[in-house]
Automatic annotation (TrEMBL), chains A, B:
SUPFAM superfamilies: FAD-binding/transporter-associated domain-like, FAD-linked oxidases, C-terminal domain. It comes from Nitrincola lacisaponensis. GO terms for cellular component: glycolate oxidase complex. GO terms for molecular function: (S)-2-hydroxy-acid oxidase activity; FAD binding; glycolate dehydrogenase activity. Its cofactor is FAD. It comes from the Bacteria. Keywords: FAD, Flavoprotein, Oxidoreductase. This is Glycolate dehydrogenase, subunit GlcD.
Length: 499, 499
């Protein structure tokens, strides 16, 4: 199915006795819903990275923390790997099942346990949708800040596992910055609280370590999140540019002017046209790039910043700057951006969504590099960015029905990510490593660093039963992956000149 | 010297061959400054927690990262424990030397390597003073936000080790929130970068794990920090109260009104009088408590928030609200607060500075509890708080020359911390655990949690050579500590009613 991932490189997983497992689970975990027929397992064969599919050994759908504890105890005893799954919206295959493993689906943990306006927090179960937290808090004038584009569907447990971002994370931080504490169940079935009401808890910061660990350290069973007061005013400016690099430079100039926008997003012409055609957001379809810049806070403050941002944009060569005139227009401007992925899906049989980050100053050069790679591979690339924090989402358009369709797209994607690493960036911004980018991790980290990751993993999960084969590659994989590169006549890190 | 810490509970440390170590270091690390005479070692026998003193085996003062690597390689090979020390201002004994260990003093790493106004970061060596970073950035209108009261003297490497806070961390975050990446040397002498320019780096978040780990995971050799634009305006309100609990309630009301002040500090009458007598800050010496509330941002915004905070304070029962009329008065108001510790030092032969945190809502009840404990032990307690984030600094006044002077103060301090834990808080806010609070960690965490800490520690330092006996107690220590408590007729956690 894909050229880059080869399961054998991670070494064999134990082959569990499915019948014995089913039997033990049914005895030890009363009332647990277990799916085991092929028909029932089918809907769980992939997450949001649909190019990778595997039927799990079993699916379990616990409803209580005690059930999760007993499931983990049982699997631990029988050496059965466990993959946890939230809403399954993840784009890097972090919740891709294992043929030899149990898929632990947290969908039934869907209750909001407490919204506390005085303490400005909410306690929720991990299956609660991201947006539902804000909806439950709106009566108090509060909201939960991190807003991944999938926020209608994605769950907070998955957000913790991936340390999810969103268009507002430049100003309001990632998931980890908006958590107070999390309840987890360990691989051995112990219950534990990580984090604390205090700003700085004593001991090692295991909550920060756990957040973004992609299901490799434990199972999230409850989350206590911070709630923020809704800004009095939010205003969006849309600037059009006749040149992508000018738009890239404008991003740096806004930040350098001492303004931290609530959101600062960029789209190139291909993305603009696709979104406009789908959403009718009012985007300028002839522009080579647009920037969307949201300012929020108290009104007088926003007025002043709006004037300053407009000035910066005009000095940076914007050909037009438009301010959303009312809330409806503001929502339309954002709807175009938030629906950019499905919009691109309408103009191409398939697309492959990348997720790399780069230092902001490298934006113009990397855009040029992507254009060159697009030409080299003969595949169109639409660019959508969380520009403010240098997080890019190049969308590679391809046709999986063509010979080598996916393979070519993956190879192009791999080169884009390696370009990100070369300019000092990373292979993932907010979508995680999962299964998808396991090989690129070999480019991001050296053996010493990977060994340290594995040692930390072993501190939580010495038997390596939690989500094996994701996130942190084995040294063996990296050695083989490097060898494959050389075998094809290319070094993984040719000493290329920078763009 | 102190009743609460007993070194034997951690098991014996290896007894190194001092002569062999000296010999190897002098061969392997050319040009390394080594101190080994009693006279030369004496100045390093304690850090800011001067009640605990130990002469180290040796003091080394490296100047380059390569020297640090070779020192670590040598100590690792010879099984010699290593304690790193920054400026030695820490208040929990985190840099207290070991008789059997090398004290690695980072004072010579005192260069600012880069101030980058476009990228809004500074790269500095770990021995650079906290305030020096802001001083070097002021020409660009930038500053480094975390501002511990010791910022004139404390070093950024120590700030990383302790995850230091300060009066502005409520709004601007702790050290960990203001770091981009750190360079470390591992116990085996390997060099490694933790963190990344990207907002969310792939792999486990080892930078967050490392920050606040109190020298137990590695040695910080370079730090890349975020710089923020200096706020246009900063304004301080001072509110006086005739009742400590009313002041405590006002804190919650300010936060509940949707305002996040740049700083929100509280002092009680004893602290007010001591500070006023020392600094002549203009504090109302008859008030039972004062709140200092700083608002910063653009002028119009600050004007509006000032009016709202004044209203909240008056509604909360403030008997007077005063606004600093100019920058000089603002600096005076803060000088009183920042010098509260030395001010208390003038009115008592000795004082013991505590550092606990509690949920904000528990502030009034805990203040009452501290007053009761103060009476029980017959020792005065001055209260100074980072009220906004629930971080308390009760200062216990005592006379070490009295029989059992320190022991009584420590026992009172211990009870205050246990009170913090009982109401859902922690035993340390920003000063760290170090040597001082190692026993209270047994109250904060259970065996499963401590085991996990030790497993994480072992991932970085399997031989346990880095700062042993600090921060994370051994299970043996906690078992014995519990037993001692019971032996004295007191359970560590009597099921007391909450205040």
């Amino acid at each position: 199915m894909n050229i880059l991932y080869d399961e054998r490189l991670d070494g064999p997983l134990p082959t569990p006795d499915r019948t014995a497992l089913l039997h033990k689970l049914s005895i030890r975990v009363p009332d647990l819903q277990i799916l085991h027929t092929e028909e029932a397992l089918k809907p769980y064969e992939c997450d949001g990275l649909a190019a990778y599919r595997t039927l799990p050994l079993l699916v379990v759908l616990p409803e209580t923390i005690e059930q999760v504890q007993r499931i983990m105890q049982t699997c631990h005893e029988l050496n059965v790997p466990v993959v946890a799954r939230g809403a399954g919206t993840g784009l890097s295959g972090g919740a891709l099942p294992l043929q030899q493993g149990v898929l632990l689906v947290m969908a039934k943990f869907n209750r909001i346990l407490e919204v506390n306006p005085q303490g400005r927090f909410a306690r929720v179960q991990p299956g609660v949708r991201n947006l539902a937290i804000s909806e439950a808090s709106v009566a108090h004038g509060l909201y939960y800040a991190p807003d991944p584009s999938s926020q209608i569907a994605c769950s907070i447990g998955g957000n913790v596992a991936e340390n999810a971002g969103g268009v507002h994370c430049l100003k309001y931080g990632l998931t980890v910055h908006n958590l107070i504490s999390i309840e987890i169940v360990t691989v051995e079935g112990e219950r534990m609280t990580l984090g604390n009401d205090a700003l700085d808890a004593p001991g090692f910061d295991l909550m920060a370590l756990f957040t973004g660990s992609e299901g490799m350290l434990g199972i999230v069973v409850e989350v206590k999140v911070k709630l923020l007061p809704k800004p009095q005013v939010a205003r969006v400016l849309m600037a059009s540019f006749d040149d992508v690099e000018k738009a890239g430079l404008a991003v740096g100039s806004i930040i350098a002017a001492g303004i931290i926008p609530g959101g600062l997003e960029m789209m190139d012409n291909l993305a603009i046209r696709a979104a406009e055609d789908f959403i009718h957001a009012g985007y300028p379809v002839d522009a080579e790039a647009i920037l969307l810049c949201e300012l929020d806070g108290v009104e007088s403050d926003v007025d002043e910043e709006t004037a300053r941002v407009r000035e910066v944009l005009e000095k940076s060569g914007a050909i037009a700057v438009q301010i959303a005139q009312d809330e409806a227009e503001r929502q339309r401007f954002w709807a175009g951006r938030k629906n950019a992925f499905p919009a691109v899906g309408r103009i191409s049989p398939d697309y492959y969504c990348m997720d790399g980050t780069i230092p902001r100053r490298e934006l113009p050069g990397v855009l040029k590099g992507i254009a060159q790679l697009s030409e080299k591979y003969g595949l169109r690339v639409a660019n959508v960015f969380h520009a403010g924090d240098g997080n890019m989402h190049p969308l590679i358009l391809f046709d999986a029905d063509q010979p080598n369709g996916l393979e070519t797209a993956e190879a192009l994607g791999g080169e884009i990510l390696e370009l990100c690493v070369r300019v000092g960036g990373t292979i993932t911004g907010e979508h995680g490593v999962g299964r998808e980018k396991i090989n690129q991790m070999c480019a991001q980290f050296n053996d010493d660093e990977l060994e340290l990751f594995h040692a930390v993993k072993a501190a939580f999960d010495p038997k390596r039963l939690l989500n094996p084969g994701k996130n942190i590659p084995t040294l063996n994989r990296c050695a083989e992956f490097g060898a494959m590169h050389i075998h094809r006549g290319e070094l993984p890190f040719p000493e290329l000149e920078r763009f």
